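Researcher: Please translate sequence to structure tokens.
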Amino acid sequence: MSKQNKQEKQTIWEKSDTNLLESFCADYRSFISRNKTERECVADMTAVLKEQGAKSLADLIESGETLQRGDLVYADMMKKALLIFRIGEKPVTEGMRFLGAHIDSPRMDLKQNPLYENTNLALFETHYYGGIKKYQWVTLPLALHGVIAKKNGEVMNICIGEDPEDPVFGVSDLLIHLAAKQMTKKVSEAVTGENLNVLVGSRPLAGTEEKETVKANILALLAEKYGITEEDFISAEIEVVPAGPARDYGLDRSMIMGYGQDDRVCAYPSFRAILDEGTPQYTCVCLLTDKEEIGSVGATGMHSRFYENTVAELMNVLGCYSELNLRRTLAHTKVLSSDVSAAFDPNYPDVMEKNNAAFFGCGPVFNKYTGSRGKSGSNDANAEYIAWLRACMDDADIRYQTSELGKVDEGGGGTIAYILANLGMEVIDFGVAVLNMHAPWEITSKADIYETYLAYRAFLTRC
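Model: Translation complete:
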């Protein structure tokens, strides 16, 4: 019987150290509660790296300092993507062990001119980011996270709605009594993108001659607390996300409910795996990238040259850079694209094929291919690489499963795997199965999270 078929009947809870599992998952739950944007993830992780004595690659380039085996080195791209290296025993030209995850998540972004008043209500206009079911984002308590960059160079951090004393925000919806027409629409049309306007105020500003007194009051509050003007929204990045912390889920506390687990549920174990490693045989890499949810575009997405350029800079510090050496290093590198998979949902069994589905509590998931319409847009991993990974996991007593993203004609999806494969690397998707994927509140299994962390460590140390 195949490994994954055994796991459909037997979960991995019995093999895990309960205390270690709960401790790791508590740290993870805290991480996703306080970091709901890519900028917050990078800032938090960079602070931890500095505490651990990690070295900034930019500082190394400037100082000319050399690196030793076991050293941690990091570089960020525009404070929204992060690349971490752990220097190994072997020359970097023999290849690296690479964990690649993304730290952006579906959400709503404020438009550049967001604030307006209508019938004595002040609202923010938004543009949704990534694949969402728009109807899931109405009537929820929402928070504002992000930055506002002023013309004088000052950057203001914004976080409103997370402290219990903070106000929250939301998108209104029709009352059921007047929703007869709305209820006849397709789910995809019941709430439109232009109707995802966030209600932020209704109190007028006293003693003003402004026509829009509620909007004027909101601007006065923003000026008082942050020193910003309406014009400053032009150079802002403010994300609208679910308000509140991640929580234990279920009477048995076996699961975690939280925002942004796609893909921070793989990003955090990847980060911890390289952080907790000693001196590996092969140089280890953890890449935490941005823009995956909209096609990995832009300077901070996987399609940019950030990764290649940074590896080239690292090799130059190590004294082994040449264009040929860079290409050889990339071609010899083995990668786990650390991204989530869809968990089997007994409420919706028709979209899954059980022999090739991922189940909660049965370990991390290998997706040999993703894509859609006959594997279009997919990285299809080589059989030899999968065999190498099977040996890696079995030797470390890691329980894993294999899966597809639903039945063949039901849909599909993609990750950064194919982009890394374009550089000649061996790549496969490997991560945690998620319920409610892309919803404001996603659900994961604690057993899967901890086993994924152990699997990533086993991969980094595999010779």
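Researcher: Any highlights?
Model: Residues 3-105+259-461 form a domain with the Aminopeptidase fold (CATH 3.40.630.10).
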